[in-house]
Specification:
- Pfam families: I-set.
- The chain contains no helices and 23 strands.
- It is an all-beta fold.
- It has three domains: 9-66, Immunoglobulin-like (Sandwich); 73-157, Immunoglobulin-like; 162-254, Immunoglobulins (Immunoglobulin-like).
C-alpha cells in the first residue's frame, strides 16, 4: 500500500525475478494497493518477495520474506470415532490472521472442533470423528503482505463388523474336518486374526485360513481333543486404532 500518488504501476518480484499471474499466483492491484496471493504454496515458493511501485516521478519498493514449511497437501485415513488433529507451522510478519476451513467453509472452536495455537504452531482437533467429518481441511494464514494456505484431505473409515456369523458353540468328531465360516461388511484394508487361548493362530497344513470376498473361513483338518477351546475372530482395519471386541466361539471335539 502506498500514499496518494497518480498513475502508479505495481510489479512483483521473487529473488529479483518478475512474477506473472498464473494458476497458482493471483495479483490484485488497485489505485493505491497491490496484493500477491499464492493459492497452493510449496517449499519452492520460499524466498524474498518485492513489490515495486512506479510512476512518472520515480519508484519505491517494499520487501517481505516468505518461508513455507511442511507439505502443502497431504491425505490420510482415520478410524471412525477416534480423534484427528491438523497442525500448521506458520512464519511471517505480525499481526497474523489464521482461519481454518472445511470444504471451503470456515470453522471455529465449537462442538467437536477445537482450535489452539502455540507461538507459530496452529492446530485444529476433531474429537469423536464421524463419517460427515471427512473432507478437505485448509489452514489459511494472512497478514498485510499476503496469504498462504496449507490443505489436507481427511478420509474417515468405519470399523468392520460381522454381518453373518456362526453358532457360538460347535461340535465335531475326532478326525473330522471342522469348518467355521463368517462374513464381514467390508474387505478393503481389513485383516482377519484368529486367536486360540490368547495366542494368534497361524496358517498350517492342519489349520487353513482364508478371507475372500468378505467371507472369512477357518478350517481345522483332522480335529483333535486339543482343539476344544474358545476361539476369537477379530476383524481389524490396517490403521492404528482401538478395536471393538468380538464374541468368543466355543468349539468342542468329541470322540467317535
Amino acid at each position: 500500500e502506498i500514499e496518494e500518488a497518480p498513475n502508479v504501476n505495481f510489479k512483483w518480484f521473487k529473488s529479483g525475478t518478475s512474477i506473472e499471474e498464473s494458476a497458482n499466483c493471483c495479483i490484485l492491484s488497485r489505485q493505491l494497493t497491490s496484493s500477491l496471493e499464492l493459492l497452493s504454496p510449496t517449499k519452492a515458493d520460499s524466498g524474498e518477495y518485492n513489490c515495486k511501485a512506479t510512476n512518472q516521478h520515480g519508484c519505491d519498493t517494499c520487501a517481505a520474506k516468505l518461508t513455507v514449511t511442511g507439505e502443502s497437501s497431504v491425505s490420510f485415513n482415520i478410524i471412525y470415532s477416534t480423534v484427528s488433529s491438523f497442525q500448521c507451522v506458520v512464519t511471517g510478519s505480525l499481526p497474523m490472521t489464521i482461519v481454518w476451513h472445511k470444504d471451503n467453509i470456515a470453522v471455529s472452536s465449537w462442538g467437536n472442533y477445537q482450535i489452539t495455537s502455540d507461538k507459530t504452531k496452529y492446530s485444529l482437533q476433531i474429537k469423536n470423528l464421524q463419517l460427515i467429518d471427512q473432507g478437505t481441511y485448509l489452514c489459511k494464514a494472512s497478514n498485510s503482505v499476503g496469504t498462504a494456505t496449507c490443505s489436507s484431505e481427511l478420509r474417515v473409515i468405519n470399523k468392520p463388523s460381522f454381518v453373518k456369523t456362526f453358532e457360538t458353540s460347535v461340535s465335531s468328531a475326532i478326525g473330522n474336518t471342522l469348518r467355521l465360516e463368517g462374513q464381514v461388511d467390508k474387505d478393503t484394508g481389513v485383516t482377519i486374526t484368529w486367536i486360540k487361548d490368547g495366542k494368534k493362530l497361524h496358517q498350517t497344513m492342519d489349520c487353513k485360513q482364508s478371507f475372500e470376498e468378505k467371507v472369512v473361513v477357518l478350517e481345522i483338518t483332522k480335529a483333535k481333543l486339543k482343539d476344544s477351546v474358545k476361539y476369537v475372530r477379530t476383524p481389524m482395519m490396517l490403521v492404528k486404532s482401538p478395536l471393538r471386541h468380538w464374541p468368543n466361539l466355543k468349539v468342542g471335539i468329541v470322540g467317535k
